[in-house]
Each structure stands twice: as structure tokens, then as C-alpha cells.
Design goal:
By secondary structure, the protein is an alpha+beta fold. 20% of the residues lie in helices and 33% in strands. The longest helix is centred in the middle third of the chain and has 12 residues.
Amino acid sequence: MIEGALGIIDKMRIEVYPNQKYKDAEALKTIFVQVNPESYTINHEVEFCEGQAMGASNQNLKFNKIGGQEVSFDFIFDSSGVIPPAKIKDGKVEKLPLTEGLIDVLKPAIANPFEEAATIEEELDEFKQLLSGYNGDSHETRFLRILWGTYKLECRLTNIQIEYKIFRRDGRPIRANAKCKFKETQSYEEMQAEQNQQSPDVTHQRTVKQEDIFTLMAERIYNQNQYYVDVAKANNLLSFRKLKVGQVVRFPPIK
């Protein structure tokens, strides 16, 4: 409530990690952006293998994979003093102290209009290094976590394009727009768990509900309708037509 009254808003933050484990204790830096993006674009792509028989007039699309989420943000860098500066903190930081937010709100109002603005070159270089810097030990660029409100994305930077807009008398930039594109990343273990959670090749457990029919439950798990007798035997069921609500039924993997 106090922050709202003072005009302090929650800033988007980007957490920087050395590896794909995303352990809080291993976070290298937290970047609080200078200005929250006005908008962002999310792209979901489904990839197919294209096949076309000789003499055919059309193609047969065969599913290949679902690509990771791609998102694009525009970040403003401005050293004119009109906009409070961005913040980069060591480790994982979820929120800036109230005193820092208050100073940032008041600082533009008390800035010296006759003082020449600093350039944004150092801030941009640090930003680029944190997002795309190469780690010689792991032979990887950084792993990132973008957080803004309820939005969360674990990702890698795939592209950054910088447009310089306002300059000092000596030609050095004081405002720029960094167009950044990120792609979702997921560890092998997470992908395997996600892909296998509905697979008929792993064991499933289901709690019987009022409307459940045993044969249909088995068909949904195995995508076939001939395994319900085997499931009944595996659960020592004398009659699969008299299941009790709340009863747990185990569906073993297909051998």
C-alpha cells in the first residue's frame, strides 16, 4: 500500500544462473529492468516433417516436435536522469528495499539539468554479458529466469538487437532500445518426466470417482481396450464392475 502511494511499481526481474539446475543459492545476479516492457510477444511453434509423394499435389505433414516457448521483450536503457536507473544485485533478490525505490522515485525530480548525462555503454555491456556471457567451465551461455507478476520463464537468450536513439554532443548514446528474444529451456530430466507422465510404459495410479468405469479408465491409460483384465488381476479385483469410490487402482506398464 505504501509503495503504491509513492508510485513505486514492481519491476520485471531477470535472474542469472550458471547452469540448468536453477538453484536459488547458485543465482549469480538479479537484474531489475529500468522500465517494464509495454508489451511482449509469445510464439509457440509446432514442427512437422514434410513429405510429398511423387506426382502428388499436396504434402503429408508428420509431427516432429513441439518447440519451446519463444518470447520477445524490448528493454529501454536511458541515462538522461528522467527515468530511474536499472538495478543489478548479487544473488537472488525478489524485491528491492523500499528505501531504494523511494530514492529512485525522487531522484529524477532533483536531477541537475545542467549536468551532462552519462552514457549507457557500460550498462548495456554489463546487460549483454550477463544475459549471453560465455562460461568457460561449462562451455555454455547463461541460464535465465524471467519473472514479472505471474509470468515465469526459464530460458536462454537467443538474440539481442540494440537500437541507439539519443546521443550526447560527443556522439555517445544516452538512450537505447534492446530488443531481446528468449527461448524456453528444460532439463532432460524434466522433459523425460513430462513426456512419460501419460505414457502407457510407466505405472499409473488413479483414485476411483463416482462416474468412473473401470474399462474406460484402462482404455484411457493404454489407448487400447484389451488390458482391463490384466489390470484387474494386478489389483486382485474379483469384479471390476464393483469399484468403490475412493479406491486406488494401479495400472502397471505394458510389457
